[in-house]
Design goal:
alpha/beta; Rossmann fold; six-stranded parallel beta sheet; five-stranded parallel beta sheet; 17 helices; 11 strands
């Protein structure tokens, strides 16, 4: 028991997790500088590309524009992805023309015990990847397993965002000048940081690759789904996603109910509540506090959710995956934050997206007085 207390104290004051991260960044920095010099890559043909994105849904979702840009720059190359099994819907239903998806589950990103994969299975995946001998690997996360893959020179070239992050750490300490790629984990959106990671390779994000592409059958399903739920085009459709991954991010069900009622009264809006099956109970608690009717959409897959959101004039959500979908699809949104880390995850587009940040909790009036101008312009045009 005493040993456990000592270990807890060490972790608290020395922050071993941070030390692990910085050591990994140092290794990736050295590998990319010494083993995979950029000047060599410029002369190499690119026929096989691997994207490593091992984190959560939102992280892979924000990587889709980068992946689609790569497909435009290298139309003849085959693209593969290494990601967690929880990202299956994005990897298989949203990203197009992927040759192979490697489901490599890293323990620290797993949310359920049944997602943790034995080390033997991970080694088998690394062995298979090494046999492919990829021309280019863009590593957006990294793990110790992939680190050894790079050390053993099983790929032709590696571009690692962890290497850029280490350069940023050195710049923050004043040891080097700021990197010319404008990578800054603390003061700009993660999508811009991803763009910086590929800019070093001589190309950038293609603007028209930002939007997520939805299959025709998914669009047809949503068309029938809206008709079944009597959603009409003559009234504004406002989506509300009231759930988040942690309790600290949540907003009260009373506030969501009051907000929905005000939106209905002010704009004659139709309200559709988005969520997963496990979030249905929270949605029903909100609806029980409302006097007006609304629609529950907790049975949609991720591609179906994206297709449904595309038809909304406004989305209101917490710090969750929904805000990333709204940003990529150009849907006006209001994002309610309880954490001051919103700069990295919420784009600063004042026309299309409003961020409400209050640690003590936002009020309904805060949302109503900060609706995005793009949404208000749409409503004004529709009411004429």
């Amino acid at each position: 028991m005493q040993i456990k207390t000592i270990i807890t104290s060490i972790r608290k004051y020395i922050k071993l997790d941070l030390i692990h991260i910085y050591l990994f960044r140092l290794f990736m920095f050295c590998i990319q500088k010494l083993i995979y010099p950029l000047r060599r890559f410029q002369k190499e043909p690119v026929n096989k590309i691997l994207i490593v994105r091992l984190k959560h849904l939102g992280d892979l979702l924000l990587s889709v524009p980068l992946i689609q840009s790569l497909q435009r720059y290298y139309p003849g190359a085959t693209l593969s992805i290494a990601t967690g099994s929880w990202n299956r819907e994005i990897a298989e239903d949203i990203i197009r023309d992927v040759k192979k998806v490697y489901y490599y589950n890293v323990t620290k990103y797993c949310r359920a015990k049944d997602q943790i994969v034995p080390i033997q299975a991970r080694l088998a995946i690394l062995r298979e990847i090494s046999q492919r001998r990829f021309d280019l690997v863009i590593d957006l996360d990294g793990s110790v397993g992939f680190l050894f893959l790079y050390l053993f020179k099983r790929v032709t070239f590696v571009s690692s965002i962890e290497s850029l992050r280490f350069q940023q750490n050195l710049a923050q300490l004043g040891l080097i000048e700021n990197d010319r790629t404008n990578y800054n984990i603390h003061s700009q959106h993660e999508l811009l940081n991803l763009a910086a990671s590929i800019r070093r390779l001589g190309f950038d994000l293609i603007p028209d690759s930002m939007r997520l592409q939805i299959k025709r059958e998914t669009e047809q399903f949503i068309h029938a789904y809206f008709a079944k739920n009597l959603i009409v085009t003559t009234r504004p459709l406002i989506g509300i996603h009231p759930a988040a991954s942690t309790r600290q991010k949540l907003w009260s069900t009373e506030n969501f109910a009051k907000l929905a009622e005000e939106l209905i009264q002010r704009f004659r809006a139709q309200i559709i509540f988005f969520g997963t099956p496990t979030e249905r109970e929270r949605i029903e608690r909100i609806q029980a506090k409302m006097t007006s009717g609304s629609i529950t959409a907790s049975d949609l897959s991720l591609p179906q959710f994206i297709a449904a959101m595309n038809r909304c004039q406004l989305l209101i959500c917490l710090d969750s995956l929904a805000q990333h979908v709204a940003f990529l699809q150009g849907v006006p949104a209001v994002v309610i934050y309880r954490s001051d880390n919103f700069v990295r995850w919420t784009p600063g587009d004042s026309e299309n997206m409003a961020v409400i940040f209050k640690k003590e909790g936002a009020e309904v009036a805060d949302i109503m007085s900060n609706l995005p101008p793009a949404f208000l312009k749409k409503i004004e045009t529709a009411l004429r």
